[in-house]
């Protein structure tokens, strides 16, 4: 039995971001040990069944305070030709089906430094397989919303408290200045 998770990728997009997020664990070395949940067997000598309903182990509370740095990393007209951007954040969990969900902040109109102060709760049944997925978009009434940045972080790597979270572009490259100020808390 193998005890490492290995993922190959082609192209960019959400699957690539999830893979990058998974490998941020273990110092970004490219090797992540499987969680005990996937190594242990139950009384029937079977490993974890992803379809089996499990009880909630912990609840992750996330507060998205604000974002800053876009005006330093983007041209003034990158998002809108005549006004500052209208940013919002999509935040969710990628993991087992019972944990997977996406929520969204309100859009903050015409502001390069948006302040959301929105809080979300994510009950987690298998936190050791969960990734916190964060995407920032610029709301566009007439067209498709513009991409502002993203990050994926293994829930196991999150630490309680207020953090400045770096944001990455669609190719997974870290923006020099863009960050989100967020608070993480685990409730049992």
UniProtKB/TrEMBL annotation:
One Pfam family hit: C2
What does this protein need as cofactor?
Ca(2+)
Q: Which UniProt keywords apply?
A: Cell membrane, Hydrolase, Lipid degradation, Lipid metabolism, Membrane, Transducer
Its main localization is: membrane
Q: C2 domain location, by residue?
A: 33-169
Return the GO cellular component terms, semicolon-separated.
Answer: plasma membrane
Compartment annotation: Cell membrane
Membrane topology qualifier: Peripheral membrane protein
SMART domains reported for this sequence:
C2
Keyword hit for Phosphoprotein: no
Q: What is its EC number?
A: 3.1.4.11
Q: Which GO terms describe its molecular function?
A: phosphatidylinositol-4,5-bisphosphate phospholipase C activity
Task: Identify the residues that the record assigns to the PI-PLC Y-box domain, covering every copy.
Answer: 5-38
Provide the catalytic activity annotation: a 1,2-diacyl-sn-glycero-3-phospho-(1D-myo-inositol-4,5-bisphosphate) + H2O = 1D-myo-inositol 1,4,5-trisphosphate + a 1,2-diacyl-sn-glycerol + H(+)
Which GO biological process categories is it annotated with? intracellular signal transduction; lipid catabolic process; response to stress
Which protein, by its recorded name, is this? Answer: phosphoinositide phospholipase C
State the organism of origin: Solanum tuberosum (Potato)
